[in-house]
Amino acid sequence: MIDSLTGKILKKTPDTVVICCGGVGYRASVPSSVAGALAGVGQEGTIYTHLHITENDLSLFGFDSEEQRACFELLTSVSGVGPKAGIAILNVLSPDRIILAISGGDYKSFTAASGVGPKLAQRIVLELKDKVGKGMEQGISLSDLGGSPSAPAGGSAQAVAALIGLGYSSAEAATAVAKCDPSLPVEEIIRIALQGMAVGR
């Protein structure tokens, strides 16, 4: 399996990147955030890849981090969620927000993605909630859940895990953390989330 590609960027669009490695141009479908995260055309870049194999097709998908790829693999493990839907979800939600939505039972967040209706969104939450909740309780990173090499969990996911460790349910923790700015330090997210839950009680 191709784990990652590093080479000169030959072309990039909002949903496609072509990278030249060893004289071969690899075309990968990507979430919209990837093109913006990569260097410009003609410069060197790296994408983390997932090779999707079916009876009639081989498709390569590219991501800007191992965490994003793991989230894609987690989503596509759900029956009815194909690669196109997985990419569509990553176009509108970051990996941290996806994990928080699953933990908090917020299926409506997924319906913002093109081609994802309420029934499919509910199935995503239903099939992944226990897996994600147990992973957070055990301190397992998003990449471990997705079956990829380990990568640090995002600050929001770490904050949720810490709140669960303090005795809050995964749903309570995820809902509180979702109201915080994910760019803040983990300690600050936890502090704000705790204040919010204290006010709500």
Commentary on this structure:
By secondary structure, the chain is of the alpha+beta class. The chain has helices at about 30-35, 65-75, 85-90, 95-105, 120-135, 140-145, 155-165, 170-180, 185-200; strands spanning about 5-15, 15-20, 25-30, 45-55, 60-65. Helix 2 packs across helix 3 (about 85-90). It is globular.
List keywords for this structure.
alpha+beta; single chain; 201 residues; globular; 5-stranded antiparallel sheet
Rounded mean pLDDT score: 83
Helix tally? Answer: 9
The counted number of beta strands is 5
Residue fraction in strands: 15-25%
Largest sheet: 5 strands, antiparallel
SS-based structural class? alpha+beta
Please state the overall shape, judged from the principal axes of the Cα atoms. Answer: globular
H/E element sequence: EEEHEEHHHHHHHH
Query: How widely separated are the two ends?
Result: 50 Å
Portion of residues within helices: 40-55%
Q: Point out poorly predicted stretches.
A: 137-141, 146-153
**Alpha-carbon Rg, integer:** 18 Å
Question: How is the largest sheet built, in terms of strand order?
Answer: 3-2-1-4-5
Concise structural overview:
The protein has helices at 32-37, 66-75, 83-92, 95-103, 118-137, 142-146, 155-165, 170-178, 186-200, and strands spanning 4-13, 16-21, 24-29, 44-53, 58-63. The chain is an alpha+beta fold and 201 residues long.
